[in-house]
């Protein structure tokens, strides 16, 4: 029996809806396996700006520091996207939270589900069997470098900095993951142009002898963007810096068939946060059409983090069951019209091992 405190940050747009379903599934896990999960709801993002003026209120940050894990829905609101002069933005809350919690490794699995092969715009025979684990550095690089304007606002800059220590700590995690998988690690960089990328290559290369069973190779990010679509099965673990990882993980989601399927874990030495890779999808807010699976699979990663692999696998099996039965939201099957809540409930029931879990 395990007792854990989970801070839930539902956020904006579809965030509360998809988080609600992931919490439903975690309740089912707690029931079936006899654990006690305590959920503490806090504000972050545009909803926090509306309520308090700050995207990451002090109370939220304090609660996250004390939690065993954080579950996040999504943040963002179009009223900020179209206003470059906005003094505070929802994204600042997420970026600060990642930094304050020291969540330097963002782990994004990309899987081609057999049930959805025909759904991807890519050819089924090309993507079948794809199983990639992306390690994206999350607290450094151009996202966190000095930024500003000069020349009366007519020029702008964003600095990109990395230290050897920042590269080593995530590289060790990526090598260790490769050791438990297919023993291949691909560093994605732009070492033909960027000095930071040359430091990445040099540092990762120096660590390689500590992991003799792992074959290390390198790709420039432009070529990697092409290879991910042309031949995704060639990849096992991908390691990359913050912005390249942001871009190629959205690209790789096309393989899965929907951005609504991809979970992520963001971990550091003292904290862990779990969130879908998709955004707040404001157009879908309140319509019951948002796919909760990415957040539910993020909850499965949270269970892995708690040292509960059987519970995590049960959640993943329940998701497979929903895909088998085509209990999916409209972007995956417009004919069936299951809602966010119906998909979440189906998966929660499957976790509880209810024999008759067909939808009525
Ligand atoms: C992501 C998102 C964030 C990022 C945004 C919302 C700041 O796109 O988690 O991938 O760029 O990291
Ligand atoms: Mn992104």
Question: What's the layout of helices and strands?
Answer:
Layout: E1 3-11, H1 15-33, E2 36-41, H2 46-52, H3 58-66, E3 69-74, H4 78-81, H5 90-100, E4 105-111, H6 124-127, E5 131-137, E6 147-150, E7 155-158, H7 164-179, E8 184-189, H8 195-207, E9 215-220, H9 221-230, E10 237-240, H10 242-256, E11 263-267, E12 272-276, H11 293-305, H12 309-324, H13 340-351
Parallel strand pairs: 1-2, 1-3, 3-12, 5-10, 8-9, 8-10
Antiparallel strand pairs: 4-5, 4-11, 6-7, 11-12
The structure holds 3-isopropylmalic acid and manganese (II) ion.
Binding site for substrate: 98, 108, 136, 222
Family: Belongs to the isocitrate and isopropylmalate dehydrogenases family. LeuB type 1 subfamily.
Site (Important for catalysis): 143, 190
Description:
Helices cover 41% and strands 19% of the residues. It has 360 residues and is an alpha/beta fold. The chain has 2 domains: 1-101 and 270-360, Isopropylmalate Dehydrogenase, CATH 3.40.718.10; 120-260, Isopropylmalate Dehydrogenase (3-Layer(aba) Sandwich). The strands form 2 sheets. The protein has a 10-stranded mixed β-sheet with strand order 2-1-3-12-11-4-5-10-8-9, sandwiched between helices. The protein has a two-stranded antiparallel sheet with strand order 6-7. Helix 1 links the parallel strand 1 and strand 2 (36-41). Helix 1 packs across helix 11 and helix 7 packs across helix 8. The longest helix is centred in the first third of the chain and has 19 residues, at 15-33. Residues 355-360 have low confidence and may be disordered. Manganese (II) ion (MN) binds next to helix 10. One of its GO terms (molecular function) is magnesium ion binding.
């Amino acid at each position: 029996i395990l007792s854990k405190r989970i801070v839930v940050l539902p956020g904006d747009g579809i965030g509360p809806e998809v988080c609600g379903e992931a919490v439903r599934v975690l309740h089912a896990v707690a029931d079936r396996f006899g654990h006690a999960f305590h959920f503490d709801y806090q504000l972050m993002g545009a909803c926090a700006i509306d309520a308090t003026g700050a995207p990451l209120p002090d109370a939220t940050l304090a609660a996250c520091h004390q939690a065993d894990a954080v579950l996040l829905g999504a943040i963002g609101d179009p009223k900020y996207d179209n206003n470059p002069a906005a003094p505070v933005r929802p994204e600042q809350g997420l970026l600060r939270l990642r930094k304050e919690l020291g969540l330097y490794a963002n782990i994004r699995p990309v899987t081609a589900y057999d049930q959805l092969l025909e759904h991807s715009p890519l050819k089924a025979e090309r993507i079948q069997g794809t199983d990639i684990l992306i390690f994206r550095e999350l607290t450094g690089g151009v996202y966190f470098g000095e930024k500003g304007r000069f020349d009366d606002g007519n020029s702008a800059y964003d600095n990109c900095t990395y230290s050897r220590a920042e590269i080593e700590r995530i590289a060790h995690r990526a090598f260790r993951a490769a050791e438990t998988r297919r023993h291949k690690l691909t560093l994605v960089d732009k070492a033909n142009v960027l000095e930071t990328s040359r430091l990445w290559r040099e540092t990762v290369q120096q660590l390689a002898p500590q992991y003799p069973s792992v074959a290390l190779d390198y790709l420039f990010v432009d070529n990697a963007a092409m290879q991910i679509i042309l031949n995704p099965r060639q990849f096992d673990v991908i390691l990359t810096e913050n912005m390249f990882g942001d871009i190629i993980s959205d690209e790789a989601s096309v393989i899965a068939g929907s951005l609504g399927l991809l979970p992520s874990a963001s971990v550091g030495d003292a904290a862990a946060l779990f969130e879908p890779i998709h955004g707040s999808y404001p157009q879908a807010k309140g319509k019951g059409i948002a796919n909760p699976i990415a957040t539910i699979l993020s909850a499965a990663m949270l269970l892995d983090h708690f040292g509960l692999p059987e519970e995590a696998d049960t959640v993943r099996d329940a998701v497979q069951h929903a895909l088998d039965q085509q209990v999916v939201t409209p972007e995956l099957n417009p004919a069936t019209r299951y809602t966010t809540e119906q998909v979440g409930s189906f998966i929660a029931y499957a976790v509880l091992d209810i024999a008759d879990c067909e939808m009525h």
